[in-house]
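Ticket 4471: requesting a sanity check on a complex prediction with zinc ion. Repro inputs:
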Amino acid sequence: MTGHFSLLDLFYPRRCVFCGHVLDKNVLEGVCPDCAASLPRTGGGWRTKGEFFDYCVSPFYYEGLAAEAVKALKFRGRSGAGRRLGKLLAPCVRDRAGDWDLICYVPLSRRRERERGYCQTRLLAEAAAKELGRPCVPALKKTRHTPPNSGLRGLAARRANVSGAFTVVKREAVSGRNVLLIDDVITTGATLGECARVLRMAGANRVVCATLCKVKKK
Ligand SMILES: [Zn+2]
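Returned structure tokens:
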């Protein structure tokens, strides 16, 4: 048996996070060549401006394979994809998010997390943090349940929906620090903006955001 073949590979062959095909051991980042070629990368459109945060970086548009992967993670119980998608987010953060001290993530309400069985943004954030060698701090808490913003049109309605829904539970961790805030998808930036607002209120010096996907503006 060769040195780079682990026993785990026998039982759990590495599969492409997007299509499930078994991967050659040498394939990087857990993506098969076919999927890698057709991923909806943001290219020059990676940056989104926001309120209360400087900008948001995103490696993929919320389309095609990337949208399918996020939906599987959120709605079809594919929690295992969270860690692997978080690893895919890390290079974009490393190259584009500038300087920051710690990672936080947009939390789910207790009710939503109970329904889903896990918090997908925490999985993304923890995997990205591990990859980037920085701490992931559960500094935010969602204090009331809100209908999904995806059902609402326009920034004003989305902003009203999430207004006052988050609170900082670890002020000492974020005070005076530069925070990288992670979510799965950015659309109008209303949710990230509200989380960034309460982080700033709690003394965070600066907030930058990263999401796996961004919704392309029509
Ligand atoms: Zn694939």
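Notes from triage: The radius of gyration is 17 Å. Leaving this open until the requester confirms.
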